[in-house]
Fold this protein.
Amino acid sequence: MRLKNKVAIVTGSASGFGEGIARRFAKEGASVIVADINLPKAKIVSDEINSKGGEAEAVGVDVSDNSQTKNMLESAVKSYGKLDIFIQNAAIGMSPNSLVDTPEEEFDTLFKINVKSVYLGAVHSVPIFRRQGNGGVIINTISTAAIRPRPGLTAYNSTKGALVTMTKGLSLELAPDKIRVNGLCPVAGDTAMLDDFLGDGPKEESYARFVSTVPLGRLSTPRDMANAALYLASDEADFITGVMLEVDGGRCV
């Protein structure tokens, strides 16, 4: 098992990409904190992991809240004695809209949940990693939207673009501590967020347009993201930091 005796937090892991990552990490031997704003659904995931012989605990958290983020990280250390891997996956999407027509409140909410949360996660996880003294792994879920933005999603694209710079900058700041920081850039996947991106028109047509932009002919899946996250979190990637790994079927070529 590639993550045996590791402790991992995965935010936004009650569904979608985060759930896929949490389940795969548990299969690979990690003790997993299933963190999500939807605690009942997070408990379902953690209970299923435990029923299959894994080790998991559900934690309810609003990752845009300073104190809740701090408590999430401290609870992981309290439960398992340490932290090895922190997957910052929680995010929200938006329905298609031009930037100038995007309400200020929606713009602020997007940046609060998609960007501020990653800042807060760093603020409270890095001292833990430094105190432990043996490095650590931070992986931020970004998006191909940061690299090849789609029209009508400019506010969302911008939040993901900010995370590219934040992830690369943090990787340089933390390299002396042997804390690796990388990003995952998936193309859109068949998750709950996809409905927002497709908008109010005919879903089949919008879906087909999305798929048509992917050379390998499909959208990403939780399995795809779990496999990529597993590599970046494992010791096999111990010389990999500051990388934006595109999980996109060739979308960004």
Observations:
- The helical segments are 16-27, 39-51, 66-80, 104-132, 154-174, 192-198, 203-212, 222-233.
- The chain is about 45% helix and 15% strand.
- The mean pLDDT is 96.
